[in-house]
Amino acid sequence: MRAACAAESNVVATDHDSVSLVTGSDGFSPGGTLAVGLRLKLAPGWHTYWSNPGDAGEAPTIDVTAGGPAAGHTAQIDWPTPRRLPDGPLMSYGYTGDVVLPMRLALSAPGEGSGGTPLLLKADAQWLACANVCVPEHGSFTLRLPAGGAATRASAQAPLFAQAAAGQPRPSPFKASLTPAGLELSGSGLDAQAVHDAWFLPSAPGLIDQVAAQPVQVTPGLVRIGLKPLPDLARAKGLDGVVVLRDVAGNESMLSVSAPRAAPRARSSGFAVSDLPRLLLLALLGGIVLNLMPCVFPVLAMKALAFSRIAGSHHAEQRASVAFYTGGVLVAFAALGALMLGLRAAGSAAGWGFQFQSPLFVAATCWLLFAVGLNLAGLYEIGGSFAGMGQGLASRRGHAGDFATGLLAVLVATPCTAPFMGVAIVGALAAPAVVGMAVFLTMGLGLALPYAVFALVPGLARRLPRPGTWMVVLRQALSFPIFASCVWLAWVLSIEAGDRGVLLLGAGLVLLALAGWLLGLSQRAVTASAPRRGRWCMAASALSLLATLALLPDLPGLGARSAAAGGAGLVPGTEPFSEARLADLRRQGRPVFVDMTAAWCVTCLVNERLALAPQQVRQAFSSHHVATLRGDWTNRDEQIGSFLRDHGRDGVPFYMFYPPGGDGHALPQILTADRVLHEVGG
Q1: Where do transmembrane segments lie in this chain (predicted)?
Q2: Which of 167, 185, 208 is the last residue of a domain?
Q3: Among 272-286, 457-471, 656-670, which is the least confidently predicted range?
Q4: Which of 43, 94, 276, 452 has the most CB atoms around its CB within 10 Å?
Q5: Phi, psi angles (nearest 5°) of residue 409
Q6: pTM score
């Protein structure tokens, strides 16, 4: 090759590639444009990268300048559509074989008398060549082109430019939108013949799980590509990239798409004033039944002690205790309702129990319950009557305890969903804010109602034994249900935040135990007339508590585990839920059982053990070829939230059964093995 005038520059060669600067023609036209590109001839098994390299790698860079009378500078690379290069848990996008990364070079018009001067091209490039290892490489290239008639003659590298042009994505003729389930394309010409397979290549990393499966659902005029979002996608306005459509003959079409986030789906019906009495009744019944849910069992310990305390009190004391407890419940429900209504008005998906999707909230709740348990066990006292304090102050502290018990009852009740609550919550979120708040407050009244009836109905409270030493033993014994709740919350955190989250939680529990022990020493020192020692112990206790709180900022940044709540499911053959997979199974004519659950949902776990774990249920699913799709809402998942809202629910558990060829229908939130067997025909 002659260095003076050629369509290919000097070559930078290694054992795994040879790289050069090439042009699409043997000459140039001053004032026109010139096709120029970086040619990479990669050895078998080696590759380089696309503009979005994927989970690893780095995109090539090249800077080309034209010297002489027809000076110019290149724009960006016109990237051909890359290949997907999976490697274990990672996905990369890149090129193999002989490839050109093309650009367009705009040339200036030459001055008078310089029209025949050759064009001098200089380029500096950097790229990665990768196989089992990645080798960073760079090169400087020089190329001279003559002016004149050679500009119209295709170079020997022109077929590579044509190949690159054929692989470049064209603007999509279809409407694209980003939904909680993934990417949707809509328009005429989309059907099962035109789209046998499809996949999406994001233009930027960090928005979707690039190695996750992308299930495809095709209906006339609509293609859905399932995507697994990463947290950063929630803050993005949309998603850009390339969609590849492959038809039944194997031909591929590469489409450049910019998918804005789809508007939230409108609810099927608005609020009607005539619905208000029904919603309030359902909310009241749901709150009452919530007292029987396993989530509230730990608070029953504190309620039992409160019952015993007021058993021999005057009616005024009993009424005050009920008022403060009910006030705590209502304040907590009002705060929770305001938060859910506010988030929903802002367009966010917030369902019942959504706060337990936050590792920080789970850890803080566990620490709070642990501190309550230590208090019940007698390690320290809250609100006790120290020496020299009046009885009136002790009484007021008792009512503060009633208020705090009401707050705590709502806090620990949110992982459970009682019958009647689901419809009431959905109605509250669809109604005007004032009506929605009324529904939440009515639910709180339902939760507080049994305590109020027991305390205020003459004769019921007097049936309890009189306060005595037995209360100390009962109080200590009732600390163990609280500690059991802490163990459960630690398991929830292990799913949400992994081993490091549990380590931080355990460190906080140790520091809380130290703070409680020091507080107890301080209180006993004050009682023993040793105030100086008490102050030192109190200061040390405060420092230990501050050290516990200092662990909280580390929790929100912990990555979510991919394991499903409680594992892969008790029913053999359970698969992760996706709307595309559900549609595929229904097209096959298989019965489908959809199980929406979460590790922090106690009702879900009870249903799982009592209704799905029995051997006869598992055998029925197997013999009737029932496909089970399990949606894990332990961590925030827009696709699951969208599915719940589409079916009029805002929390878990939620169960749907789709018979072969029929429409799906919801099952009760409190599930039994007999009901499941009835549905599947076992």
Answers
A1: 279-301, 322-341, 361-382, 403-431, 437-461, 473-495, 501-522, 534-552
A2: 167
A3: 457-471
A4: 94
A5: -60, -40
A6: 0.52
* Domain boundary residue, one of 115, 142, 167: 167
For residue range 45-86, list pLDDT tens digits in order. Answer: 999 999 999 988 899 999 888 876 556 566 689 999 999 998
Of the candidates 380, 370, 369, 378, which has an alpha carbon nearest to the alpha carbon of residue 518?
Answer: 380
Q: In the chain, pLDDT over 70 holds for what percent of residues?
A: 79
* Banded model confidence at residue 393, pLDDT cuts 50, 70, 90: very low
Interatomic CA distance for residues 668 and 649, integer angstroms: 12
Q: Where are the beta strands (DSSP E) in 466-591?
A: 575-576
**Does residue 563 fall inside a structural domain?**
no
Size (the chain), residues: 682
In a domain, 559, yes or no: no
Residues 525 and 637 in one domain: no
Buried b (16+ CB within 10 A) or exposed e, 409-443: bbbbbbbbbbbbbbbbbbbbbbbeeebbbbbbbbb
For 516, the token pair is: 């409680």
Residues 500 and 582 in one domain: no
| Residue 542 within any structural domain of the chain | yes
98 near 42, Cβ under 8 Å?
yes
Instruction: Kindly tell me if the per-residue pLDDT of 438 is higher than 60.
Output: yes
H or E segment at 224? strand 222-226
CATH code of 624's domain: 3.40.30.10
Three-state DSSP class for 586?
A: helix
User: 581 is in which domain, residue-wise?
Assistant: 575-680
Could you give the CA distance from residue 90 to residue 344 in angstroms, rounded to a whole number?
35
| Shared-domain flag, residues 614 and 670 | yes
Q: What is the pLDDT of residues 583-610, one digit of tens each?
A: 888 888 889 999 998 877 777 888 888 8
User: Residues 93, 52: contact at Cβ < 8 Å?
Assistant: yes
Residue 340 shares a structural domain with residue 475: yes
Angle between helices 359-377 and 297-310 (to 10 degrees): 40
First to last CA, the chain: 79
336 CB-contact burial (10 Å; exposed 0-12 / middle 13-18 / buried 19+): buried
The pLDDT of residue 311 is: 59
Do residues 284 and 443 touch, judged by C-beta distance below 8 A?
yes
What token pair was written down for 163?
Answer: 């190949």
Condensed to tens digits (0 to 9), the pLDDT of residues 331-384 reads 988 888 887 777 666 555 555 666 677 788 788 888 888 888 888 788 887 644
Assess whether 181 and 162 both reside in one domain.
no
- Report the C-alpha gap between 505 and 488 in whole angstroms: 12
Tokens of 668: 């009760």
